[in-house]
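Let us begin with a simple case.
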Amino acid sequence: MYEKEILITKEMVDAFGQATNDYNPIHYDEEFAKQTKFGGTIIHGMLTAGLISASLVDHYGPGVIYTDQTLHFKAPVRIGDTAKIIFVDEELFPKNRVKLTVHIYVGEVKVLEGLAFIIRGE
């Protein structure tokens, strides 16, 4: 099992929006976002998912490659939250292939769960 915590900052959200050209007001406009079911701004779901990638490199080292990923978004993440990324090797395959379960929590709340397949770098 591997765990890593990452503080979510406004700079991260701004950089992600710029990189992807995703300027949905749910991520940037507090007045707009207050009118939604979330009651305020939330970060991009794919930014949350992207936290997994850096964690994989931290754990497995350079050269790790995603081959497949399923994601289930369970709850919103907000600027100022600390996301805890957890993944567990579930099955090892030939040629450095690994199946893992992935979970991200904010506090006690699971915000994302999924399954990943990777190839470990050599």
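The second case is a distinct protein. As before, the sequence precedes its structure tokens.
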Amino acid sequence: MLVLTHHPDRTVEAQLALGEDRWTIEGVPRLPADLAAQARTHKAFPRVRGLATPVALLRAGLADVLGALSTRRLGAWAVLIGRADSSEAAWRKRLRACNPWLLWLLSALVATPRAVDPQPSRPRGRVLLVEASTLRPPGGPGDDWRLHVAYDCTAGRLEQVRVTDRYGGESLVPCALQPGDIAVADNGYGDRRRVASATRQQADVGRRVTPATVPLETAAGAAFEVVPWWRTPGQATREWHGWCAWEHQRAAVRLLTAQLPPAAAAIARRRVRRKAHKKGRTPSATALLWADGVRLVTTLAATAWPLVAVLRLYRARWQVALVFKRRKPLLRLHQIRRKHPTSVEATVRARLMA
């Protein structure tokens, strides 16, 4: 991008030439070989109008999100570098149409070679680490947009990046599952509707739950009391097999629990008390009891995924949580000025890619 303190012609020409050389030398070689073909497949570049190549379109999109330009300033910048002469409305349409193409490019850039499965007996499918976080534009209440990310840890790439409004809570609705997939998520996704949704898509789940949001049943249909079972002295890790019902649909599930070490349990209880204090109430004895351990509900078969393997799989979910923790401050996702949901989604994908 240009950073001008004055406007002599020689300075403008020198900076334009410098930007062109850096983009050609440092940017273009990193792009996939089938970039142009995928741009036409995803309808981001159906025809030449104002822009000569998909590479030029990508450069304009990156300049838009990294330079925090309005579409009017983006058009002026494109004219200065001699790449396009399009109206403000035309630029808005082009950037929105790039949304699916940007997701493909984002996945292609972060992809790693698929590792060999050490246990070939397990069913083939993606292991999706699902997480959501809020985006705060300037002047907003703090949760105007919600960013949903699904990371395929078996392929080493982002499979899905979706943006919803504040009412789109943490759910698997924005996440398109395929038969054989395994969706790993935290407590925000842990209710019986999510289990039923994944089961209908012939996928499996492994997520942390609160017993109140996932009522469990025995094979005879009687309610299973988790609290007495949890308080019964026994091993630090234990397992129970039962059923989860939602809207006349029953799914066989496993309840897995693991006791936290004393130091970690004390930290978890302090966190519960602090959260309750902020809301002006006293934490219940049950809430403090749940802080002593981890409870997971999964539909994975015990033969292929024993208790220890599922607990280890859930710990991998923190990898996608670190994406938000480390990248949001650097990419300034909270400064998005777009209003249209598709434009917000395209902006988020472009910034993650950059």
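Residues 9-97 form one domain. Residues 6-18 have pLDDT under 50 and may be disordered.
Keep these points in mind for the review questions at the end of the chapter.
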